[in-house]
Amino acid sequence: MKDNVRNEYAEFQAKITRRFCINAVISVATVMLLYFLLWRQRGGDGVVWFLEYFMRIEHEQAFLIYHYYFRNFKEIFFAAAIIFIFAVLLWGLFRWITQYFKEINQGIDALLAEDIKKIHLSAEMVPFERKLNAVKQELEKQKRETALAEQRKDELVMYLAHDIRTPLTSVIGYLNLLEDEPDMPVDRRAKNVHITLDKAYRLEEMIDEFFEITRYNSRQIRLSKEPADLYYMLMQLSDELSPVFAPHGNSVVLDVDEDLMICADTDKIVRVFSNILRNAAAYSYADTEIIISAEEKDGQTVISFQNEGNHIPEAKLSSLFDKFYRLDKARISDTGGTGLGLAIAKEIVILHGGSVSAASEGDTVTITVKIPSS
């Protein structure tokens, strides 16, 4: 890694080094030229000629000026010439280097610009160009994520208002009915009270789910992992959910090794399996089997839930685990769930260090959960 970084800057370093070396050679050559012209007195005739023809001074007087002011003080002139040459070359070198700072400054301005154009620098500045473009992409990504988070927050408020209103409206309606008809027959009153209570329980369940997904998102949930018998867990859960499968004639088939163990928070992982099975029951064809299989693979326990139902387009598969997402838009919260079941399942699996995914081939839908074996 260090070698790659070093190689990236090699061209930039080489160009600066070459420029320094060229300046050094020019400095030495210029000083040597001055030495042979002035120090070795070969430039005296030139100085006298310059004074004669340009300053209109007599030859003898011009020679005396050269002798007293140039020749006798040649060390001072030589030193001044060296300083002047050094200053000019150094100024040129600094001016050349500052061009790179200007490029970087322009790159930073482009970084902050509200556009999608790539930043372009000179050839030897490619490493800087690459990093500036990487930072620009990251800033754009963060901006999109922030906008998406704001959108999801707005959607959360909208869904909360919609999903809570449905059972709440029913509760209020039945309570008004009971209040408006004090002489209602006992059997009818009992029926209405029972319906009202069911709606209230449903409302309580929804609010609990809303709070639960919020706690998972904020990572307020702590796991208590322990070894658990996966086969027994799934078998017991299948029996408990039999009333959910019965209305459509669905059944569960286990294809799991009876000795297969997992290390997980049992209460929470059971919630994962329960939510997936309830979702499978809701969207399965009538009188079909839901097949659960599991195996150890590459240090992970892979559990698959397969059911027969309508094909799910590829574009919708990634949304299955989004909050409030429902495949059947006709289902309302009062009959079709809050749309949080698979989202909660995903959060629990991620909390275990695993992953969950969905696939659909023909009429077969498969949800796969992967959890580290230890």
Write a structural description.
- This protein is α+β, with helices and mostly antiparallel strands and 374 residues long.
- The chain has three domains: 112 residues, no CATH class; 64 residues, Helix Hairpins (Orthogonal Bundle); 147 residues, Heat Shock Protein 90.
- It contains 13 helices and seven strands.
- Share of helix, binned: 55-70%
- At the third CATH level, what is the topology name of the largest domain? Heat Shock Protein 90
Low-confidence stretches: 329-336
Could you give a short account of the major beta sheet?
5 strands, mixed
Average pLDDT value?
79
End-to-end Cα distance, whole Å, is 32 Å
CATH C-level of the largest domain: Alpha Beta
- The CATH superfamily of the largest domain appears as Histidine kinase-like ATPase, C-terminal domain
Number of domains: 3
User: Which series of helices and strands comes N to C?
Assistant: HHHHHHHEHHEEHEEHHHEE
Report strand %. 5-15%
Backbone CA Rg: 41 Å
The CATH architecture of the largest domain is: 2-Layer Sandwich
Question: What kind of oligomer do you see?
Answer: single chain
Structural class: alpha+beta
Q: Please state the overall shape, judged from the principal axes of the Cα atoms.
A: elongated
Walk across the major sheet and give the strand order. Answer: 2-4-5-7-6
**Tally of DSSP helical segments:** 13
- List how many beta strands DSSP finds: 7
